[in-house]
Amino acid sequence: MWRKIIRQLFSHKIIMFGIVALLLLGIPFVTMGLINIGNSVFSVTGHKINPEGINNAEIFMFWGSYLGGVVTLLGVVMTIQYSRKTHFHQMEIEKLNEERAHFSTAITKLNSLAISKIWESFRALYIGTEGYNDADIFNLKQMIIHEREQICAARVELSMNTFILDESEKCLKCQKQCDIQQISAEFREQYYDTESKLYDCLSVINNVIEISVANARYRMLVYKNEQILKGDISEEDRKYFLEHNEAFRSKIVDMSALDEQLATSIESIANFHISGKTDLLYKSKSYYYLKKSNIDNLC
Known about the structure:
With 299 residues, the protein is an all-alpha fold. 83% of the residues lie in helices and 1% in strands.
């Protein structure tokens, strides 16, 4: 039971400090009281119980020097603790400022305009007698790969350099009322949704490009065979080219469903560059100020 009481007292630093201060200040007076009792006993009974050469003046001088040393030591300890807290606070603010810088960098990498540019560039390509130019298609493929890498890099940057994508155990166990969990959850939901839409849109564009290139190649082959069939050829050759034309035509994919899917996908990311990106930046800014307030309050 006594251990439990002592443990509870130590958990309340102010109460413990007050008890220690009272003991330090009270000991001189208790000692002087005992000396006075000893002197009274000596005057009445003649029996001396006080040590030789000790009086009230010497007690005050001893405890004065002793308390002065204790106060000095306490001052040094408090100064060290304050310096540590100040240093820790400064380090936490510096880390938070670095975290804030990574937010803007990562969100900027979610570039919906670049995806629209890829699609418009493909639509503007010239289809020659042999279909699309291989170099143009290669460049577009490289642009798609680059944007996919940017989306992945944004996720890595947020995961490695910020805590907004994590559900902090510290926050989950915290008893204080704070909006960080809610802001973080809203940011994660919107970020994952945007990331998914951008990546899906790139995948659809990539599929459209691949199928369009193949369709253009088959159409060119059909056209060339039709030109040959218009000429004077043998029945055996005619049969051969007709069969091949049917085979080429059967490989031409109907793009209507894919075009509709692409239109829906592009529409889903159309407003991200203005409203979506602004909303993510606003949520990251709210997260920053809430976390800064918690750091200031030693939370």
